[in-house]
Amino acid sequence: MSKSAPLDVAIIGGGFAGIGTAIRLKQKGITDFAIFERDTRVGGTWRDNTYPGAACDIPSRLYSYSFAPNPDWSHTYSGSAEILGYVESMVEEFGLRNHFRFGHTVTNLQFDEEAGLWTVTFDGRKPKVFARSVVVASGPLANASLPNIKGIDTYEGHKVHSAKWDHDYDFAGKKVAVVGTGASAVQIVPELVKQAESVKVFQRTAGWVLPRVNRRTNSVSKMLYRQFPVTESLARQAWFWGHESVALGVVWNTPLTRVVETVGKAHLRAQVKDPWLRRQLTPDFRAGCKRLLMTSDYYPALQKDNCKLITWPIATLSPKGIRTVEGIEHQFDCIVFATGFDVSKTGTPIPIVGRHGRVLSDEWSKGAYAYKSVAVSGYPNLYLTFGPNSGPGHSSALVYMEAQIDYITDAVRTVLDKNLTMLDVRRDVQDRYNADIQQRLESTTWNSGCQSWYLTEDGFNATMFPGFATQYAHQLRKLDLRDFVLASDATKLGNRPSERAAVS
């Protein structure tokens, strides 16, 4: 593709966010776009996470787009294969297949201020692509991360990461370690104890676990949803408001937090009879400070004869297994790392160069920030999905993502309709917004003292939104051009990063 024929939009990533953006672009009459996906298939995190028991802990009615409802969800909470099927069905239903460019790993994004174009560079020998707008929809859970544990390279047995599951490895008769007790681990452990000779679970911190009732959707309900879509919409709204009310107990430390904790403790007492094991599994932080775990299978699995919980900290990995700080070496055939992802709370997953040669990873070195999670001053016509401070602690990520997508597609439409070379958020507006966000975060449970992946090492919260989903969506309801600096071919901006005035 030559520079004389730039795309209207380049979308980076072919998961939920990229596909949702593409759908809304088409619905707004924008069809000159391409989705660049590093893999050979669509699906993002639901393509990659195929470990045993993989499922979403948000109800399926809510973990889907309102503009692409699925009346055929099989259960209240769907497994990864069914979610991937939903993603693939959207690609077909909305005619997106021809917009995909598979096997394209983006290695650099650079803005040409004079032309008002982004240059998208890929690895290998693929030609560069030029685009008027770029949507970075690669997602925060895209890059699997092994823990920084001493001796990890010395271990001679089999290693498996939850996001890169080895389906060819036979766990039958094997001695297996699971490192981690987060959202993936509590789904993996119940499945492994059915197969392995023994399973030892290495816990650093006990989490708050709430019961999950996963009912099968009957055929009558499915028929009703298909024939009368309004009923499915009402069901989605019911789940939304139910989860919205949970914010009062997990986003802030309130009397309702005690209710959540009471439910968690009751669930623990009901499923774990041994007092010492209950003590080991009791969190020492407020509910909501870390991600809540939704499972009714994890506690029973830990009490199987072939399963044991290890709470001594890991000192090092050895050639044969794991050595804990009290000097005991546990030997294993395989170690499963359920240790999450490399989430960019600082820096960026790919180099991004904006106006005047500014580099986003340098600006984010002490913590990521953006305006309404979507745009960053100095990087015109560049938009983020699931960007800084858009994480929900109580609701579906897709509710937040849908609001972002509508805001982004309005911005893209504005660039095209006004023939702009730049739509750049004002720095003063961005700074006020983020000062307010950080001030509000101070009173949330996430900033109450526990360590979590939400925070940087020095305690900066670049991840979560301090409020209700309704508040988040409301702020993105309208694209206010007063928040931006505009420029067209006829009206070029000055070359000062501190430029403030909007040009209409």
UniProtKB/TrEMBL annotation:
Keywords: FAD, Flavoprotein, Monooxygenase, Oxidoreductase. Pfam families: FMO-like (PF00743). GO terms for molecular function: monooxygenase activity. It is an enzyme of class 1 (oxidoreductase). Its EC number is 1.14.13.-. It comes from the Bacteria. InterPro entries: FAD-bind_Monooxygenase_sf, FAD/NAD-bd_sf, Flavin_mOase-like. Belongs to the FAD-binding monooxygenase family. PANTHER family: FAD_NAD(P)-BINDING DOMAIN-CONTAINING PROTEIN-RELATED, L-ORNITHINE N(5)-MONOOXYGENASE-RELATED. This is Flavin-containing monooxygenase.
